[in-house]
Amino acid sequence: MFDLKFIRENPAEFDAALKRRGEDAHSEQILALDASHRAVITEAQEAQARRNEASKLIGRAKGQGNEEEAAALMAEVSVLKEKLATLEEAERTQGAELTNLLMSLPNMIYSDVPDGDDEDANEEMRTWGAPKAFEFEAQEHFTIGEKLGMMDFERAAKMSGARFVLLTGGLARLERALGQFMIDLHTEEHGYTEVLAPALVREEALYGTGQLPKFGEDAFQTTSGHWLIPTAEATLTNIHAGEILDEADLPLRFAGHSQCFRSEAGSAGRDTRGMIRQHQFEKVEMVSVTTPEQSDEELERMTGCAEEVLRRLHLPYRVVKLCTGDIGFGARRTYDLEVWLPGQARYREISSCSVIGDFQARRMKMRSRPKAEKKTRFVHTLNGSGLAVGRTLIAVIENFQQEDGSVRVPDVLLPYMGGVKVIGA
C-alpha cells in the first residue's frame, strides 16, 4: 500500500518508480479514483448533516402546528435516506476499487537498485570462501541422497505427487540439526526472539504481507478459508498488526523455524529434479520491525546474521543486490545470499533479505509512537531467510560429499547429530 498524499503531491515520481519495475503509469487512474471517492464521502457527509438537521426541524414544525412544513421536511428526509444509501454504496464500491488497485501494485524501490530484466543483471557485492576443488567428479545432492538410500522422491510422489521428498535416517537428522542450529544461533547470539506460530492463517494476514491478492495462485488455500503460510514472514510480521508500538521498544526482532508451503505455480519445468523447489519445505525466517531511520542499517545487520550461518558451516557464498526485474513485489531493496553448489558448479539462492519500508505496515495498520509525542507513524518492516533449511541441506550434502558417496557432517552441527560425524550408506 502507498501513501495517497505522496501520490497526490508526487505523481511523476510515483509513475517513474513503477516504470523501473516494468509497470504502467497509474497515478492518473489512482488520483481520479481518489478524487471521486473523496467527493462521494463529502457529499454523503453533507447529506447526513442535512438529514439530521431536517429531522430536528420536523419536531419543531409539528410543535408549532405547522403540518405543511413538517410534511415537506419528512419528504426531504425520505429522499435524503435514499440518496445516502446510494452514496454509501458508491463510497464502498469506489473505496474497494481504489484499495484493490493500490494493493495490486509493487513497492517503490530504492534508487540504488540496479536496472535490469532478470537475475543476470543482479549486482555482485561480495563473496566469501573458495569453492572446493574435488579430486573426483562432484555429484548433485539427489544423486548422493538416493545412493545413500535416505532421499526418496518416488515414494514421496506416491503419497503426495511431484515436488515432495522423503528424507530418512542420517539425512533426516541432518536437516533437523540444521534448523536447530540456525534458530539457536539467531536467538542466542543475534538477539532474535524465537516464535512458534501457526502454519495456517486467515487471508487478512497474507494481505498484510503482500502475498494477496496478487500471488494467490502461489499459495495453498484450505476448504475452511485458511491459507498455508508460504513463509513464516506471514506470521512473524503480523504479530503486531493493528497495534501502536512504543518506539523505545524498537527494533523488534523475531525468528521462527517453520514448515512452508508453495504451489510453485510459475515454476513449471524449473528444478524438477531434487529438492531445490518443493511444495513443502522448512525455513528459518527473520523479521524486524523498526523505525524508518533504523531500517537501512537493520537490513545490513540482518544480512550479516544470515551470512554467519553460512560462514559457520564453511559454505562458500556470494551476496548480490537484486535488480529491478528480479526484486520481490514488496521489497525496496533486496540482498540475496547464493551458496556454491559443486554438483551444479554454480551459485544458487539460499536466502533473501529485504527492507520493505512502510509498505506492509500500511496494509496491516501497524504504527509506532515516538516518545512524548501524540502523533503516530507507520513502522518499517524487514524480512530475511536465515536460512532456507532444505537448500542448506543441499549445500551441505554437495560441499561435504566424499568420494565413497558418504557425507561428512560440518563441525558446527556435531552437537546436534548425536556423535555422528559421517553419514554413509
How would you briefly describe this protein structure?
The chain has 425 residues and is an alpha+beta fold. The chain is built from twelve helices and 17 strands.
What does this structure look like?
The chain is of the alpha+beta class. It has two domains: 4-104, Helix Hairpins (Orthogonal Bundle); 119-423, BirA Bifunctional Protein, domain 2, CATH 3.30.930. Helices cover 41% and strands 20% of the residues. It contains twelve helices and 17 strands. The strands form five sheets. An eight-stranded mixed beta sheet has the order 1-10-11-12-15-9-8-4. Strand 11 (333-341) and strand 12 form a beta hairpin. Helix 3 runs antiparallel to helix 4 (67-104) and helix 7 crosses helix 12 (389-399). It is elongated, with a radius of gyration of 27 Å. The protein starts with a helix and ends with a strand.
Low-confidence stretches: none
For this structure, what is the CATH class of the largest domain? Alpha Beta
Give the integer mean of the pLDDT values.
95
- Beta-strand segment tally: 17
Number of domains: 2
How big is the Rg? 27 Å
Major β-sheet annotation = 8 strands, mixed
Question: CATH topology of the largest domain, anyone?
Answer: BirA Bifunctional Protein, domain 2
Distance between the termini: 52 Å
Level-2 CATH architecture of the largest domain = 2-Layer Sandwich
Q: How many separate helices?
A: 12
Neighbour order of strands in the largest sheet? 1-10-11-12-15-9-8-4
Secondary-structure class? alpha+beta
Kindly state the percentage of residues in helix: 40-55%
Fraction in beta strands: 15-25%
Global geometry: elongated
> What would CATH call the homologous superfamily of the largest domain?
Bira Bifunctional Protein, Domain 2
What is the succession of H and E elements?
A: HHHHEHEHEHEEHEHEEEHEEEHEEEHEE
